[in-house]
Amino acid sequence: MVLWIVIAVVVLALIILGASVLSVMGRLSGLDRALRRLLLRQEQATRLQQGAEELQQKIEGLQKRAEVAQEQVAVIKAGRGADNGKHSLQSAPAAW
After folding, report:
1. 19, 87, 90, 93: which has the fewest C-beta neighbours closer than 10 Å?
2. Which residue stretches, if any, does this entry annotate as coiled coil (predicted)?
3. Distance between CA atoms of 50 and 44, rounded to whole angstroms?
């Protein structure tokens, strides 16, 4: 009689253990999906960061080009000598 009680307790414990394992396994699939989404977002963030760095480099290059262009414009304006913006060649009559 005691043997049957022990067997019943062990079987009940195994059933409870099995139910717990199934519950945890169900949650693991959800965690796996969440992990995959996070990895995908991490890849996207890495790509965006690389794109932002490339864009930053392009902007720096454009800034340098704009500074050079501004310096060239300043040199051209200084070479004209007139504040009205007309070049000295423009005031001379055309020879053609």
Report:
1. 93
2. 45-72
3. 10
